[in-house]
Amino acid sequence: MRPLLPLSLFWRTFFLLALLLAGGVFAWVQTLRALEFEPRAVTAAQQTASLVNLSRAALRQADGINRVAILKSMGAQQAVRVAPREPGDRWEPFEVDRFTRRVSAELRASLGPDAVVARSVNGKPGMWVGFSIERDHYWLQAEVAQVSPLSGSTWFVWIGIALLATLIGSAGVAGLINRPLKQLSFAASRIRGGDLDSRLDENTLTSEIREVNMGFNRMARELARVEEDRAVMLAGISHDLRTPLARLRLETEMSVSDEEAKRNMALDIDQLDAIIDKFMDYARPGETQVGPVPVAKSIEKEAASFRDPAQIRITSRVPADLRVMADETELGRVFLNLFENARRYGRGTYTGIAEVLVTHVRTGAWVILTVRDHGPGVAPEKLHQLTTPFFRGDAARTAATGAGLGLAIVEKALLRMGGSLELGNAPGGGLMAHVRLKRAA
To answer: Which long-range contacts (C-beta less than 8 Å, at least 24 apart) are formed by 228-237?
Structure first.
């Protein structure tokens, strides 16, 4: 079963608030209906009973001739009409639900137990109340709307307005709640990208948010200080280590007579110097300025430093007009480390030469550059460990004389430029490094 996508904090807060307020609206509507039911039924019954009593009083005070005239006059009314009640009249009881039963009970309590309440007489709908004056029987017809509860459409309009206000209010409240967290997330992403000058508002009215912002700003200042100390330390390490290495190289050239020993000592010094470069590259600050960089030019420049065809041969199939968004120095460092990694560990089993092929694929707004060697490859279970600092897959790739930082430097440099690195074994053998960067417009 496919897992559900995680909701952002805004939408989670919005849905919870909307659910809470919608439940409140529903409870409010039910309470209002319960409270409105009794008074409305009693009011409707009293109004109808008052009409019946007025009609009864008017007819009782009139003689026979005038009573007929009054009946004709009242029969012509639209809202309330009075008509004689015939023995053959067919009528249906008014009581069909709880509200109409309550109205009927109130009418009989006001007019007497012999009062008849019907919802239609001779097929004509309405509220009909039968009453008597001496031996004469009459019907009073009133509009059903005067004695009916609120209609469903009215409740629907009220509930719709309440729910719309609930959604708007929930969105506003969720936005206010999540705004400080969104600002914190944005500031944290800037810190992660190397911008240590990011600061949050320490004068906000909410005490908890103010304390979090103050703590974040203190952390940012400490990180900036640590970054500054690291830069000074790196400069000191580079100077303090390379100075004695230079003296060792000079002493070797002047004091060692054995040419083979002199050559081996020079190689060891060069290796130490290269390891220092790796450490410096890996510990380099994370600030980069990306811009359009021609990929083919960078590949050619770094490939030119590998002049010995007996060790590595680099073939590029990247067009000259392909440009990516990157830092030129960082991109060169990426290819330099990938080529060096192939030279050390990707040599062919029979030829002893590292055959390296660089290709590219355009996919949407991205460019995927693939650097492939034809060596023995890496065990699948160790692929994810190759970018771990100081890890070397010695069991699969021989002659591991490096510091184990090359691919870690590549991954770190690509992340600083907004790209990514993916490693895999080629179908025909060898390691493939997929460098993913944004394509320049």
So the answer is: 230/283, 230/285, 231/285, 234/280, 234/283, 234/284, 237/276, 237/279, 237/280
421 burial level (CB within 10 Å; 0-12, 13-18, 19+) = buried
Q: How far apart are CA 294 and CA 411, in angstroms?
A: 20
How much is the pLDDT for 399? 45
The one-character DSSP state at 102 is: H
Contact status, residue 393 vs residue 382, Cβ threshold 8 Å: yes
CA 382, CA 284: separation in Å to the nearest integer?
Answer: 26
The rounded distance, in Å, linking the Cα atoms of 56 and 65 is: 16
CB contact set of 77 (below 8 Å; sequence gap of 6+):
none
Output the DSSP codes for 318-352: --TT-EEEE-HHHHHHHHHHHHHHHHHH---TTT-
- Whether the per-residue pLDDT at 258 is higher than 50: the answer is yes
Structure tokens at 50: 């008052």
141: left (phi over 0), alpha (psi -120 to 50) or beta: beta
Q: Are 241 and 210 in contact (CB under 8 A)?
A: no
**Domain annotation for the chain: domains and CATH numbers:** 9-152 (3.30.450.300), 207-282 (1.10.287.130), 291-438 (3.30.565.10)
Q: Identify which has the larger pLDDT, 58 or 372.
A: 372
d(CA 340, CA 309): 13
Tokens of 241: 């280590």
What token pair was written down for 379? Answer: 């065990």
Q: What is the pLDDT of residues 137-195, one digit of tens each?
A: 888 887 765 555 555 566 677 777 777 877 787 777 777 777 777 888 788 877 776 67
Percentage of the chain with pLDDT > 90? 12
DSSP state at residue 97: S
- Distance (Å, rounded) from C-alpha 238 to C-alpha 208? 45
Among candidates 60, 118, 122, 56, which has minimal Cα distance to 87?
122
Q: What is the enclosing helix (H) or strand (E) of 368?
A: strand 366-372
How many CB atoms neighbour CB 280 within 10 A? 15
Crossing angle of helices 406-416/259-282, nearest 10°? 30
Look at residues 154, 120, 150, 142 and name the one whose alpha carbon lies nearest to residue 47.
Answer: 142
> What is the Cβ-side half-sphere exposure of residue 284, based on CA atoms within 13 angstroms?
18
Residue that is written with structure tokens 């460019």 in the block: 367
> SS3 sequence, 39-63?
HHHHHHHHHHHHHHHHHHHHHHHCC
**Does the reported pTM lie above 0.90?**
no
